[in-house]
Amino acid sequence: MKLESKIQLIVVGESCVGKTSLLYKYSQGFFTQEHLATVGIEFFTKEEEINGRKIRVKIWDTAGQELYKSITKNFYRNSDGVIIVYDVTDRESFEKVQGWVQTISEYTDTEKKIQKVLVANKVDLTRKVTKEEGMKLAEKYNIPFFEASAKLDIGIKDFMTKILTDVLDNVSVDMSRVTLDQKLDNRKNKKKGLTSMDFLCYH
User: What is the pTM of this model?
Assistant: First the structure.
């Protein structure tokens, strides 16, 4: 099947809510608790088939620390969707979802309808936030709500399918689009005569 589209997502939430674990499980199929906290921003990629269309998904994994929030501003603007994650064992991470929603509104293009989902992670552990509270918060912001566990592989396929389907339904995406990361790579390597694709070959 021919690759039709390229979709970019960004994952946000407080530090240690399990964003990276969710992305490892989704993109590489395994769970680990041994990775270090994300510093700045990293990315994961995976090819998917959604409603008969083959797409390449690139997901930016952001650091939750306040120090790094300004770094990710341009990545919001270049994304088609945002996954907001909180930890059901950490009430503070739940209470700070409002701040992340405000940040998304501030940093994203007002002319572009960016898709969002709210994910309650670590449901395999003892809760401090109920499912009903999560559903009520998602309803407040009119965002689809999912519960998940990277460790037990719960809900990940569901929320990814939802946001990718919504992006495909509402946003025009195609392989000819010049993405922010390509521009950055090309600018960085212009003196060396390397394109963004050449640059990827060295990493």
Answer: 0.79
Q: Rounded to an integer, what distance in angstroms lies between the CA atom of residue 20 and that of residue 100?
A: 17
Task: For the chain, count helices (H), then strands (E).
Answer: 8, 6
Dihedral angle over CA of 114, 167, 19, 137, nearest 10: 60
- Residue 37 sits at φ, ψ, to 5 deg, of -60, 140
Q: Are 6 and 56 spatial neighbours (Cβ–Cβ below 8 Å)? A: yes
Could you give the C-alpha distances from 75 to 25, 50, 118, 181, in angstroms and in order? 22, 24, 19, 9
List of residues 6+ apart from 195 with CB closer than 8 A? 185, 186, 189
Q: Which residue has the tokens 């963004």?
A: 196
pLDDT, tens digit (0-9, with 9 covering 90-100), for 28-48: 887 766 554 544 578 899 999
CA atoms within 13 A on the CB side of 173: 29
Question: Is 90:18 a contact under the CB 8 Å cutoff?
Answer: no
